[in-house]
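Feature request, filed as a ticket because there's no other form

It would be nice if the structure record came with a short human-readable summary line next to the tokens. Right now we just get the raw output. Example of a typical job, pasted below so the devs can see what we mean:
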Amino acid sequence: MVAWIPSRSLSASLRVRFLASLAWAVAPALVLSATHGVLAGTLAHIVLPVVAAFCVGSPQPLLVAGASGVEPAPLAPRGINAGCAGLALVILSCCAPWTLPVAALALAWRSRRSLLVALPALTLLLPTYASILVHPAAWPALASTSGGIHAYTRAPSWMALIGLPAAPSSTLEAVALGVVGGGAVLLAAVALLRSRSRAAMLTFCCALIASALAWGASHVGVGMTGASVASAWASPALSLAFGLLVILSTRMRSVQPAEPDSQRAAWDASRPFVLRASGALVAIALLGSGSAVSVSAVAGRSNADEIPTFTMSQRETVSALSSPIVSAVASQAQRSTRAGRILVLDGDPTTDTVNATLWRGNGPSLTASTPAIHALTLAQARNGAATGTLNDPATASLAQAAYTLVVYPDDATVQTLAAHDIDTILVPLGASGSVALTSGLDRAAGLEKVGDTNSGTVWRLRPDGLTPARVRVESASGVTTPVGSSQLRVDGDVQAFGTLILAERADSGWHAWVDGVALTPVAAADGWSQAFDMPTAGHLTVTYSAWWVIPWRIAAAVCLVVAVASALSAWRKR
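Raw output as currently delivered:
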């Protein structure tokens, strides 16, 4: 019910504010974002009313009945201050990057000074926008939401009109969400017909345009999920459209010619029975729809013990898992100082289709990558499919080695996979082509079969008895020494010298020192990993830091501190 305070900008009536807040709480965009596990869509819907209320301006004083009639109250009601709006815009724009330019236009319409509210969000998103400018192929990131992406069934165009970003999973859910979304459209249309004003027409047209753009954005590919292309999750645009419809429905009188305060009813005055009864029916319909969606979501969840974990993870909606998707052996390797990774194989090699995914953690994470990275990955995959080659040497090396491993396995292939710091290989339970994949892996030398687990069939890579590591030192005589590290940093004593190799893409942001002396980067033999010349043993430190990271963090921290201080100071004054 975050929309309760912003709803004061819509109406002074407690009944109308309650209905508007309730409708916002059971909006189709929010419900489907929650059931599909799209955290960005959920957070964007929650904070959108705060930003919108600030753009609209301070609410009008309450009308109270006094000795001389109905007149404005001497105290102005509490509105949304600039600090709170700035923090809300940070969350909104981080969830959906396209919302920042739209919010900036709305703030400029309010006043040019209000544009300062967008400064913290702009500072935080500078790397994203800069990446899009440098890599034009990443433009789909503007249509995407942050966090993880997933393939889903797109809603028909008429469902997008009533606010559904994806097709409902059941008839009950479709009816319940249709009541909420369709009711908002119907009430907004009635308000438009009653007022016939330019403001009402503009609001209704903006809602239709937002819905149309959302449906169009759902056809834009924004990333890869397995072997399929994931489309943009357009719930933030549908939340905006639903909010405009709610505003139009609740401000039926405000779009009519203004009346003197003395002829208007006080905020707590008794309303006609018909209005009260209509409000009660709307509240019952909203509560019933919300309850029906909850029942449908619970009923749609199958017994986790009856479905393999990997199959559950491929579903469109979120579900509870009966067992972790990563086996205990792989999890132990990930937590060790070797920072081992997992190669997940799916597909059917008999049809020349092998899907290889590299996991650094417990499966795909909501914070593992940004919209720009998702878009660039998709662009590289499409370019590779068109030309037959992959431009990224690391991806090309991994893809070729993974396919060769299950078709024509040899010692060199296992060595190549070990260079990617792959400690375990997982063929998930329920994966397609698991029989052919398992048969190919059983023939590969250098693999130790752990066995069947709750996650699937697991092998460990041990080429020539060596244990893969994220960081290693290779001497001139061919001796490999593993170096303990975390996922990003190395800090410890190393009793070896030669060539320091990181199982990471070569990048100018990597820096290494031995006893405080900087190491010189060199070209790696595999053509993709980061390597340094390490002439002596000693205390090794490896970090990643681009030149712009520290200034950007300082600027972002200053902007956020100012926004928080502004929000708290305004609250204390109240």
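Something like this underneath would help us a lot:
The first helix runs from residue 14 to 25.
The radius of gyration is 29 Å.
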